Prior knowledge:
heterodimer; A: 354 residues; 2 domains; seven-stranded mixed sheet
Amino acid sequence: MNALEEKLNRFVKYRISEEDVRLLIDHLKQKAPVYAPHNSGEASFSYELVEKSTDVVLQYPRTMQPIKKFFLPPKEVLLNFNIKDNTYSKPEVPEETRIFFGIHSYEMASLKRLDYSFTQGHRESNYISRRKYAIFVGISYEPDESHFSKSVGIDVEETEGFDLFLLKNDTGYFLLEITETGKKLLDGYKENLVPDREELKLEPLRFKSKIKYHHNRLPSVFDHVYKSKVWEKYAEICVGCGTCNLLCSTCYCFDIRDEVELDAEHGSRTRYWDGCMLNTFAEVAGGENFRGSLARRTRHRLYRKFRYITAKSEMLHCVGCGRCSHYCPVGISMTDIVNDLIADHEEKQKREKI
Amino acid sequence: MSKPRIAFFDFTSCEGCQLNKLNLENDLLSLLELVDIVEFREAMDDTADTYDVAFIEGSISTPTCVKRIYDIRRRAKVLVSLGSCAVLGGVNAMKNLHPADWVQEAVYGEDKYLFPSMPVQPVSAYVKVDYEIRGCPMSTPEFLHVLKSIVLGRKPEIFDHAVCVECKLHENECVLDKGMFCLGPVSRAGCEAVCPENGQYCTGCRGLVSNANIAGAVGMLKRHGFSEQEARKKLQMYSSLNKLINEAECRHA
C-alpha cells in the first residue's frame, strides 16, 4: 500500500451510487447554498448555484473559470463614492456558509496558494470573508490531455482541504469523511449507510501531459533559464490574449477602475481580473512598458508560477489544472514550455562540462 | 461654471455611431444636464463657432473632408474620434487595397469625375486626436465614459487588451473551440465581448491590440482550420491600413 492509499484508508468511507450522490446534493442543499459544476455550452463547464441536483455534472474535465471566482470575483465593486460630499462606503461582503461540491484536488490546492497570497502583508479582507465559512466536497476525475497536476505534486485523490471526498469506483463512488465538519454534514443522510471496511486500492492514473522532472527540481531549473531561447520560441506563436492568466487558478492580479455616473456625483470603484500577459500590464505613466515583448511577458508568467512566489511560499504556484494549455487559442501547452526549458537547461549543463 | 459645449461631426461613414448616441434614450436627458450640445447635424439644425469637445465620426476620404477637419480642429479644445472609420479608416479603408480609378468607376460610373476621392485615412492622419473611441458602431457606455471623464477633467481609460479578456471574465465558451472563426485573441476589447457572447464571432471592429502578433494570429487561425488567405482578408476588414497584415510572415502551423 502506498502512502496515499494508506492515508485514504484511514478515513471512514461509504459505498454509494450515483443516485445517492444526487441525494447527497439535495441533502446538502438544505444546509447551505451548494455550488457545483454545470454544463455551460457545447463542451464547457462552469460552477453554478445548484437548483436541481440532476443538473450537476459529476465527471467533467475542468470548469472554464477556476473556483477562485467565488472568492475573488471577476468583477467586484470595492467602494461606492460621492465626489461632491467626498464620502465613500464599502459594500458589505457577507460571511456565509457555502458548500462547493464536486471540486477537483488541483482546485483545492489552488485555494491553498491563494490563501497564502492573500494573507501575506496586507490581508485581503474581502477574500478572507468569502473564504471563511466555505465547505468543500471533492471528487476524483479522469485526467485529460491537458491535466498535469501529478507532475506538480498533486494527486487526483489528494484530500487536503476537503471536508468530504467522492472517489469514483466501478459501481459509483466511495464517500470519504475527511473532517469533523464533513462528518456533521452527513447527519441525517448516512443513517441507512454502513461504513465500508474494504481496503481501498487505487488504479494508477495515466496523465497524458507530464513534466520531465520531479516537481522538487523545477525551481532550480528556473535559476538557469532566464536567458533561454525558449521564451522567444513561444513568443512567436503567442498572441498575448491573456487567456492563460485570466483562467489560471492561482493568478490573482487585478486592475482597479473608477466610474462616475452621469450626475457627475456618484460613482464606484471596481476591480477586475487582470493578467501579466496583457500588453499594458507593466505599462507606467509616460508610456514606458517594463515588459513590452511577449517573450518577457511569457517568462514573467512562468517565473511567477515556478520561481518567484515558490521561493517565498515553498509551494509551486502551478497546480496542473491545464487551463492555460486547454484554453490557449494557439495551442501553447504549459508542460511543453517547461519541458523545453528543462531540455535547454540540460544542454547548457552539457556544454559547460566540456 | 458653464456646461461644456460639445459637437458632433460626420465624415465618410454610415452615421451609425451618431445614431447609436440617439439610442441613449434613458441617459440622454442626464447627459444634457452635463453638457450643451451645440452642433449635431443628425439631430438638430444649430451650428456654433467653438467647441469644448468635438466628436468626429467617419474617415477622411475627400479634399472637402480634409478642409473641414482642419477647420474643426482649429475651433475645438478637445477632439475625439468616434468609431472605427474615424479611428482606423475602418471598412471604408478597404478601398485603398484597390486601384483608385477602378473603385471610383465601380461606385460612380461615368460621373466619377464629379466626385474627387482620395485614399481613406483615419482622422489622426491629418489632425491631432486627443481620445479615440473605437467600435463599429462605437459602444455607448464607452462613449459616456470618455465624455464623463473629459467633463470631470480626468483621462479616460481606454482598453488595449484582447476581446478574449472580456469573454473570459464572462466565462463565455470559446467560439474558436466551437469551430467558428474569431479575431478576439488579437482584437481590442471594450465591447464587453458582445458578439461572441451572442453566438457571433469577433470581426475585430475595434482594430488590433497594439503590438499585435499578426503572424501569430494567422498561425492561430490556420491551426483552427482556416486558410491563410481567409485569415488575412478578415484581419483586413477593419484594419486594412495595418500594412503588417499582408507582410507578417507566418512561420508556424
